[in-house]
Amino acid sequence: MINIYDELKNNAYPGRGIVIGKSADGKFGVTAYFIMGRSVNSRNRIFAPTADGIETKAFDESKLTDPHLIIYNPVRVLGNKTIVTNGDQTDTIYELMDKQQTFEQALRTREFEDDAPNYTPRISGIMHIDNGTYNYAMSILKSNEGDPDSCQRFTFSYNNPKSGEGHFIHTYQGDGNPLPSFCGEPKKVAIPNDIDTFANDLWNALNEDNKVSLFVRFIDLENGKAEDRIINKNK
Predict the structure, then answer these.
(1) Helices within the chain (DSSP H only)
(2) Are 149 and 13 in contact (CB under 8 A)?
(3) Would you say residue 153 has pLDDT above 90?
(4) What CATH number is attached to the domain comprising 182?
(5) 233 in any annotated domain
(6) Which of 12, 137, 176, 209 has the most CB atoms less than 10 A away?
């Protein structure tokens, strides 16, 4: 298990990241999603709540130059499933799972992002909470070391996760040009009990220049009720 706060402090540009796990007291399914940016277009964003999750929006519409890949729904809820991703594959997963396809089947219709030369990975997660039972899965779709003709697909499933444990996956190993894609399995991290502690500690660990927005959700495993926190650098 790694210390996620140290991990973030030591990486100036992890890009976008997803954390999913279970609170230390075993009462909550927990997820966090953050976005970062190096360009004016990427940094000109906020998270805004929707009926079942969040959307990315331009903070200053006059500065929005290209909505492609930066405006999307990171979080949506389908029944007892919560979908969290770093792109518009949220909608793909929602729509195809609503037609009885699986998380993996839905993602087979997608590849990494078309932002050469980075070919940013698409990272996705899904939480399934049903009458106190809880499992989750995470996915990454990435190029084969920058080869746009080769897509690698990895899915990691976690059934009956342990209290206080979660997993963290992000898009980039660090800063660079081109940006090096995340590799390996999602990293095991500790999940606390308190939503505000988790949100504030994550936000404070992210690089001050590059961080843009953070979303944290705690879902009660018994009744399915969710509590959210949103932190935006642009205010």
Answers:
(1) 4-9, 40-43, 89-97, 103-107, 195-205
(2) no
(3) yes
(4) 3.60.20.20
(5) no
(6) 137
Whole-model pTM: value is: 0.97
Whether 131 shows a pLDDT value over 90: the answer reads no
Instruction: Quick: pLDDT tens for 19-55.
Output: 999 999 999 999 999 999 999 999 999 999 999 899 9
- Note whether residue 228 is domain-resident: no
10: DSSP letter: T
Residue 136: name the closest of 84, 185, 171, 97 by CA. Answer: 84
Q: Residue 38's domain spans which residues?
A: 4-221
Count structural domains, the chain. Answer: 1
Question: Is residue 91 in some structural domain?
Answer: yes
> What's residue 76's pLDDT?
98
User: Nearest 5°: phi and psi at 229?
Assistant: -135, 135
- Assess contact for 172 and 13: CB atoms under 8 A: yes
Residue 8 lies in a domain: yes
Residue 126's contacts (CB-CB under 8 Å, 6 or more residues apart) are 81, 82, 83, 84, 93, 103, 136, 137
- Positive or negative torsion for Cα 83, 233, 36, 45: positive
